[in-house]
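Researcher: We plan to redesign the surface later, but first we want a full-length starting point. Tokens attached.
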């Protein structure tokens, strides 16, 4: 991850004179999670770069739109989970960090199933933006891929999604699912991630359900 970030700076025309890891954090299972590094370098205009960066790699967000085949209702499948950054319950779309072979679509398919129980084929996913978007480039290298998928289901499956529990509790994921229109979700949104996902979906497909 550190080497990939350093190469991305060089690809942007920056020079990196020195690089020192300050802290490396792992997941509960031992896999690499974050790195805080101190770097000395200069940009293409020969100005000094800010010295610190938080490295976490790429992530993906999935916007699932569910359609009830019996009533033709359409709602977005979202998740609720409490976030340590502010302590509040957060209404979001399924999302996750991209590990291993750096296959964002495979990650999107996996995260959707892990966080909602919904299985889809990678061919069903549609990209909502041509490239990954950086979430906070003043500090972090994190870039996010956004995808959408439409899922048809019967009434029984539709009802089962409201309040269903999901996630990996051994990794600290305590998730419940919910079905929302944008209007229903808007008053609950407290994070840029789902709001940006809604905007990208609207840009791609038009009016939001």
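Model: Full-length starting sequence:
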């Amino acid at each position: 991850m550190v080497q990939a970030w350093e190469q991305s700076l060089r690809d942007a025309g920056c020079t990196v004179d020195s690089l020192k890891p300050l802290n490396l954090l792992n997941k509960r299972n031992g896999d690499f999670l974050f790195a805080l590094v101190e770097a000395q370098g200069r940009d293409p205009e020969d100005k000094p770069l800010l010295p610190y960066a938080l490295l976490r790699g790429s992530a993906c967000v999935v916007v699932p739109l569910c359609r009830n085949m019996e009533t033709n209702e359409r709602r977005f499948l979202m998740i609720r989970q409490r976030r340590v950054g502010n302590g509040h319950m957060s209404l979001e779309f399924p999302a996750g960090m991209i590990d291993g072979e750096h296959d964002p679509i495979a990650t999107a398919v996996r995260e959707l199933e892990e966080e909602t129980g919904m299985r889809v084929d990678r061919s069903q996913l549609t990209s909502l933006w041509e490239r990954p978007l950086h979430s906070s480039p003043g500090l972090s290298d994190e870039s996010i891929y956004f995808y959408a998928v439409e899922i048809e289901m019967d009434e029984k499956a539709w009802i089962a999604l409201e309040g269903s529990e999901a996630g990996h509790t051994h990794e600290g994921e305590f998730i419940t699912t919910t079905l929302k229109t944008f209007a229903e979700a808007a008053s609950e949104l407290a994070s840029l991630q789902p709001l940006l996902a809604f905007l990208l979906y609207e840009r791609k497909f038009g009016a939001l359900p």
